[in-house]
Design goal:
This protein is α+β, with helices and mostly antiparallel strands. It has helices at 2-12, 20-27, 31-43, 67-70, 90-97, 149-165, 215-218, 229-233, 239-256, 261-271; strands at residues 47-51, 55-60, 80-84, 106-110, 130-137, 170-172, 176-179, 182-193, 200-210, 278-283, 286-295, 301-305, 310-313, 319-322. Helix content is 30%, strand content 27%. One of its GO terms (cellular component) is cytoplasm. This is Bifunctional ligase/repressor BirA.
Length: 327
């Protein structure tokens, strides 16, 4: 869409002016078409100044999600971008679009989910005010390494939040991003395998970040364990700014996986706040108390039981709860 391409050019200028003639030449359209796109952006709330012989400059932007806001020719992840106001689940939308072929770089972003899902079949509360993003990844690795993408995604989210907000959250093993002792972000990764060969087709990494929600938005059941960036910082960042940072972080993840395994493992261990805490491990109907003592090379949680024995727990087998509050 021409409007998105014009917006991407303006954003790339960093506030410096760009002439209508230069834009028309780069995009291969008339100056009248550029002017029409500019007026459409202004109607959406973009503040665009113009001056003779200088051109157009982007001065302020509304809190909108659009391809024009997020385009970056240097990224593979997000090169195929879908922006929605609402969807049942961004993970579901990615999988629907990959039924016949696997679109390289596909990302679906939404401002709301009506059927968000979490780990182990639980629902994921997804009210307006959050940012919900799913990326299709095609890692070239043995199948047994793919489960680590959940942990890598948590590190990527911490990178994005730090880039935008200047503070770094922690990670509750295996993949909840935590700020001030409450959940800031949930992550759900899902695999799609070939029916006949069981070869990996793709992985969907789904991320939901709480941006501007209030306690009332979360509701009485979720509010005690959830937090938004607005609650923590007093002001939420723009959704497009956070989405762009997430795309940057996921693009780096995509380039690094699995070759930079040791580097990402070291960063995950530094971010993981579960280690050193007493925890309750839930496995089916069984509950057992132990102490988290480390994260092994496969990103499994190493737990020491009361009898002194140790066990490495897979995130697919168990749930871990804190004994003193959510973490």
């Amino acid at each position: 869409m021409l409007r998105d391409e014009v917006l991407a050019l303006l954003k790339a200028q960093g506030g410096a002016p760009l002439s209508g003639e230069a834009m028309s030449q780069r995009l291969g359209v008339s100056r009248a078409a550029v002017w029409k796109a500019m007026e459409g952006l202004r109607q959406e709330g973009y503040v665009i100044s113009s001056a003779p012989r200088r051109g157009y400059a982007l001065e302020d932007s509304p809190d909108l999600l659009s391809p024009g806001e997020l385009m970056d020719s240097g990224r593979k992840i997000g090169s195929n971008l879908v922006c929605l106001d609402t969807v049942d689940s961004t993970n579901n939308e990615v999988k629907r679009r990959a039924v016949d072929q696997v679109p390289e770089g596909l990302v679906v972003v939404s401002a709301q989910q009506t059927g968000g899902r979490g780990r182990r079949g639980r629902s994921f509360v997804s009210p307006p005010g959050g940012l919900y993003l799913s990326a299709l990844l095609k890692p070239d690795c043995p199948l047994e390494q793919v489960s680590a993408l959940t942990a890598w995604s948590a590190v990527a989210v911490c990178d994005a939040v730090e880039q935008v907000c200047g503070l770094r959250p922690g990670i509750k093993w295996p993949n909840d991003v935590i700020l001030d002792g409450r959940k800031l972000c949930g992550i759900l990764t899902e695999l799609e395998l070939e029916g006949e060969t069981a070869a990996l087709r793709y992985v969907v990494a789904g991320i939901g970040v709480n941006l501007s929600q209030s306690e009332a938005d979360f509701g009485p059941e979720v509010a005690p364990v959830a937090i938004s960036l607005a609650q923590a910082l007093g002001k939420a960042p723009r959704r497009a700014e956070m989405a762009a940072a997430l795309l940057d972080a996921l693009d780096k993840l995509d380039r690094d996986f699995p070759g930079q395994w040791d580097s990402w493992l070291e960063r995950y261990r530094a971010d993981c706040i579960t280690v050193g805490r007493q925890i309750k491990v839930l496995r089916g109907q069984e509950e057992r108390i132990g102490t988290a003592v480390g994260v092994d090379h496969t990103f499994a949680l190493v737990v020491r039981w009361a009898d002194g024995s140790e066990e490495a727990l897979s995130s697919g087998e168990v749930s871990v709860r804190g004994l003193l509050g959510y973490v």
